[in-house]
Amino acid sequence: MTENPIELAPQRIDDSFDSIVDELQWRGLISVSTDLDALRQALAEGPVRYYCGFDPTAGSLHLGHLVQLLLLRRLQLAGNIPYALVGGATGLIGDPRPTAERTLNSRDQVAEWVVRIRDQVSGYLGDEGENALHVVDNLDWTAPLSAIDFLRDLGKHFRVGQMLAKEAVAKRLRSEAGISYTEFSYQILQANDFLQLYRREGVTLQTGGQDQWGNLVGGVDLIRRVEQVGVHAIGSPLITNSDGTKFGKSEGNAIWIDPELTSPYAFYQFWLNTEDADVVERLKVFTFLTRAEIEELARQVAEEPYRRAAQRRLALEVTALVHGETAARNVVRASEALFGDGDLRALDPATLGQALDELPGTGAALGDPIARVLADTGVVRSVSEARRAIGQGGVYVDNVRVTDPEATLDADMVLPGGRVLLRRGRRTLAGVRVGD
RNA sequence: GGCGGGUUACCCAAGCGGCCAAAGGGAUCUGACUGUAAAUCAGCUGGCUCUGCCUACGUAGGUUCGAAUCCUGCACCCGCCA
Q1: At A57, is the pLDDT very low, low, confident or very high (cuts 50, 70, 90)?
Q2: What are the residue ranges of CATH 3.10.290.10 in chain A?
């Protein structure tokens, strides 16, 4: 079960490609774009300044944002100069979602999230050297904008017909939810961001998710109108699972990059459970493995899928990228210990203890009902759900199935180190510390 | 501003005075199978001190022995008209 430690892939571009654009295309990171040949040429002529915006709609970025961060990073590794825009202003307005109007967050809340997201973003892009990351906040130029300025200097360049035709807006108009004027105006603010960054910093490329395409083009159009200059935009595809479910969710919850919100263990498990049909695509998008290395892993998926070599590598690489190599190695060891088929009591107590520390857990006392302890660990939402799970034969203590919903925690369940391992279903684990 | 329609559990959506913790579908979860997969089949899915009790059908009141269902105010959404 324990294999030779795999060495992590260094962050680099794959020099088997002529242009970074070719590598991005191979990795499936470009689904829509302005003239790619023009972009290739611009990139060949020297460092390009480029940006991607992150709106503070929560206190942490999630996997969808990670795609963008990696896109920024790859362009940076190719010698270009990244700008990360934190949407202190646009976060107060709200980008129209296709389904429903957003609830406005308070200014204090948004300001707090701006700080946290700024910190997260900075961690992924080197801030030293000639092409160090620049972080900007669109509140700096949006807040001073008066209604008069907004309407005269910006509004005149936008035709309502075109604004209505933008997909995000059109969808909302077709839906029962409709759209507020506030959200309708969002695209103008984002277009202005690109214009401001072009004027102030010479930024000529914006990247974003495909769902942002309307907004990206809005900026390109505005700059063409106002400055008579052609700039570039790249939209990356929405990552989807081959089975049609949403990528980046586990039991309906988003996978966050903040370890407080999604533990490194849960993060690693998420990636480890990637389906065969998706794993190669994930390796391309989320790791710095080269084309040759990924092709080798693809061969292994095809020939010996049960080994899940590609999933293991993917999970290790992405966990290390987000949580650091030490944390990643720890959760790998924990996973191997807990999912091994050996007797838990035969494991080295220190290893077992460390493994259990990676899991969600709780304290409990002998005699406590197992259903309640399970609920306390958070792997089920309530005692009722725990009882139900036990009734369905889906709960195990130390890998032994529990059948009685009224069962209690007994002394013979306690493993060396005063721990008990609870499991719900095939793969949801929790650790319990027994004591009074 | 006027008129009309709407707000149901994670999502969509039935219900229109008691038989409603609320049909149906989706999704999640569990079991069998397996590779901590996929596909397939089956089952569960408000909470609790669980043969009962407590919350819940936008929100605050009211009518009634009894309301998701009737009435009134309020909030929000949609459409048409101005």
Answers
A1: confident
A2: 358-434
Q: What percent of chain A has pLDDT over 70?
A: 94
The number of residues making up chain A comes to 436
Q: Other CB atoms closer than 10 Å to residue A123's CB: what's the count? A: 14
Q: Which residue has the tokens 């259903």?
A: A371
pLDDT band of residue A1 (cuts 50, 70, 90) is very low
Closest residue to B37 (CA to C1') is: A275
Average pLDDT, chain A: 88
CATH 3.40.50.620, chain A: domain bounds: 29-236
**A426: which nucleotide lies closest, measuring CA to C1'?**
B36
Mean pLDDT across the stretch A404-431?
A: 89
Using DSSP, state whether A91 is helix, strand or coil.
Answer: helix
CA distance A125 to A83: 10
- What's the CA gap between A267 and A149, in Å, rounded? 46
Q: What is the CA radius of gyration of chain A?
A: 25
User: How far is it, in rounded angstroms, from Cα A31 to Cα A14?
Assistant: 20
Q: Which residues pair with A50 in a beta bridge?
A: A82, A205
Find which nucleotide's C1' atom is closest to A341's CA. Answer: B36
Q: Where in chain A is the domain with CATH 1.10.240.10?
A: 249-346
Residue keyed to tokens 């990670």:
A66
Is the shortest CB-to-strand distance from A416 to strand B under 7 Å? no
Domain A249-346 belongs in CATH node 1.10.240.10:
yes
CA atom of A382 to C1′ atom of B56, Å = 17
CA gap A19, A1 in Å, rounded: 40
The distance (Å) linking the CA of A243 with the C1' of B40 is: 15
Lookup result for tokens 């106002």: A226
Q: Could you report the per-residue pLDDT of A33-43, keeping only the tens digit for each?
A: 999 999 999 99
Cα A243 to Cα A239: distance, rounded to the nearest angstrom:
12
Q: Which fold has domain A358-434?
A: 3.10.290
Q: How many C-beta atoms lie closer than 10 Å to residue A352's C-beta?
A: 22
Which nucleotide is nearest, taking the CA of residue A385 and each C1'?
A: B45
At A361 the pLDDT is 85
Can you give A301-370 as a three-state secondary structure string?
A: HHHCHHHCHHHHHHHHHHHHHHHCHHHHHHHHHHHHHHHCCCCHHHCCHHHHHHHHHCCCEEEECCCCEH
Nucleotides of strand B within 7 Å of the protein's CB atoms: 10, 27-39, 43-50, 77-79
